[in-house]
Write a structure and sequence with these properties.
With about 140 residues, this protein is an alpha+beta fold. It is built from five helices and six strands. A four-stranded antiparallel beta sheet has the order 2-3-5-4. The longest helix is centred in the middle third of the chain and has 7 residues. The chain is elongated, with a radius of gyration of 19 Å. About 10% of the residues have low confidence.
């Protein structure tokens, strides 16, 4: 016996709201440019005609500096030659020092439908890891 009525329909799911990316710390040190690969790991793959790129900061302190550079516009420009439309979603992964990018219409149909060299976007993260990131020298030395 229960003290409540079980729901007859699924409860409404609140719409997704993106969590804010942590703020950059103000540091009195000069900025240096390093490749993203020095600051983060990357992984990419496909879902149909969509490419998925995950970027995980090696240290949480790096994420605000990475996020400042890796905007949806920047990633869109970097992969424009692959995409048939400029649709990109960027997500911050709360609880992880990570960003995720979803590039729509980026794989020429995807999987076996595509005539591209990388129809499953396995190398997309590596392309992005070449991006120069400006970061305080002090953070690199910590």
């Amino acid at each position: 016996q229960t003290d409540f009525e079980p729901p007859t329909t699924p409860s409404a799911i609140s719409p997704f709201t993106e969590a804010p990316i942590p703020a950059q710390k103000a540091l009195n040190t000069e900025l240096v440019e390093v490749p993203l690969e020095q600051l983060a790991w990357g992984r990419s793959g496909d879902k149909g005609d969509k490419a998925n790129i995950g970027i995980i900061a090696r240290k949480p302190e790096y994420l605000p500096w990475i996020a400042a550079r890796l905007t949806s516009d920047y990633v869109g420009d970097r992969f424009a030659h692959f995409m048939t439309s400029p649709d990109i979603d960027r997500y911050y992964m709360p609880g992880l020092p990570a960003l995720n990018f979803l590039l729509h219409n980026a794989l020429g149909g995807g999987g076996i439908a595509s005539l591209r060299n990388d129809p499953q976007a396995k190398a997309y993260a590596q392309v992005l890891l070449d991006t120069p990131i400006a970061i305080p020298q002090q953070l690199l030395e910590a």
